[in-house]
Amino acid sequence: MPLPSPDDVLDAARVLHSVAVRTPLLRSPTLDRLTGAEILFKCENLQRSGAFKFRGAYNRLSRLDRSEFPGGVVAYSTGNHGQAVAMVGRMLDIRATIVMPSDAPANKIDKARENGGEVVLYERGKQSREDIAAQIAARMPVAVVPPGDDRFVIAGQGTAFVEAAGQASGELDLVVVPCGGGGLAAGTGLAMEAVSSQAELWAAEPEDFDDTRRSLDSGKREINERLSGSVCDALLAPTPAELPFSFNRRKLSRVLTASDDDVLRAIRFAFEELRLVVEPGGAVALAALLNRPAALRGRRALVLLSGGNVEPGVFRRAIESGGSLRASAK
Questions:
Q1: In terms of C-beta density within 10 A (0-12 exposed, 13-18 middle, 19 or more buried), how is residue 312 classed?
Q2: Beta strand pairing call for 118-122 and 143-145
Q3: How far is residue 257's CA from residue 110's CA, in Å, rounded to a whole number?
Q4: Distance of CA 238 to the CA centre of its chain
Q5: Are 256 and 179 in contact (CB under 8 A)?
Q6: Is the per-residue pLDDT at 132 higher than 70?
Q7: 174, 241, 240: which is closest to 213 by C-alpha?
Q8: What is the distance between the alpha carbons of residues 117 and 38, in angstroms, rounded to a whole number?
Q9: Distances in whole angstroms, Cα of residue 135 to Cα of each of 124, 130, 131, 145, 261
Q10: Are residues 47 and 80 in contact, defined by beta-carbon separation less than 8 angstroms?
Q11: Which one in 54, 143, 169, 170 has a CA-CA gap of 20 to 30 Å to 114?
């Protein structure tokens, strides 16, 4: 399947206009003082299904040829993509099978099931989710809907920036997005081209799962040594997805990383300053920037908070963690 074009993102925006939540842009005076910048937060944690993934899922499933795929779709996901595909499947009366790792957050597995998805669990590190999805597709006429390597999924993800650009009322200097397989970064970059934005595009990854950063350095897709072990469960792709990386390798200006402790502090910061509940993967861009306030000085930046499906125990850890950043900004 070819990479989507900027026009594909604009077409996806039209498809999603009356379906997706128009999530708000928020600001934190505390963070602006801390960084010497103007920071705008695009709050996709408030999107349907609790993450930006709804956008790509709806754009893909709404175009499904049901005569070719009467069995519906099969998707593989660490959580948010699966939830979104299950929700959209219920909305459009499309059967959805979701392949998820058995160690995915319980709340994400439960939500996929509550939305009518048939969940197939596998052992991360021992089984291949792609192989399981392919085996299901070989048994029944279903379309495989991957989280990254799909033209319409990528285009749908980019609509968050199209929307944000219209809300921002002026030019942006910098856009920072979380990065797992790279679909959001690619969709955002295509959206920036679609609306003629001249801003730089940065991505942020978990510290020990920086496959995109290393891949940009080497020029080829690198593989993470581990498949689990970070609080950022939504971003633990084994390697950059092929289609997104083909675009991100030329569009991304910089890739930042953040530790689990950084991410927990960012979750607390978002709750204290914005009154938002953000999951670890959704907070990684904020976490990376909080460690580098000087990098933002004098800039107008958009930061995407990509999801809010946080496990209660993880959220509790974040709220109880020390080191509030308020004092630093006074």
A1: exposed
A2: unpaired
A3: 30
A4: 15
A5: no
A6: yes
A7: 240
A8: 41
A9: 17, 9, 6, 14, 39
A10: no
A11: 143
Which residue's structure tokens are 């084994």?
238
Q: How far apart are CA 49 and CA 189, in angstroms?
A: 23
Beta carbons of 194 and 6 less than 8 angstroms apart: yes
pTM: 0.94
Structure token digits, residue 316? 């509790």
**Which contiguous run of DSSP H or E holds residue 214?**
helix 211-218
Residues 296 and 289: beta-carbon distance below 8 Å: yes
Can you give the length of the chain in residues? Answer: 330
Name, in order, each residue with C-beta under 8 angstroms of 255's C-beta and a sequence gap of 6 or more: 179, 202, 203, 204, 205, 210, 212, 213, 216
322 in helix, strand or coil? coil
- Average pLDDT over every residue of 141-145: 97
Classify burial at 34, counting beta carbons within 10 Å of its beta carbon; exposed 0-12, middle 13-18, buried 19 or more: buried
301 secondary structure, DSSP code? E
Query: What are the pLDDT digits (tens) for 171-220?
Result: 999 999 999 999 999 999 999 999 999 999 999 999 999 999 999 999 99
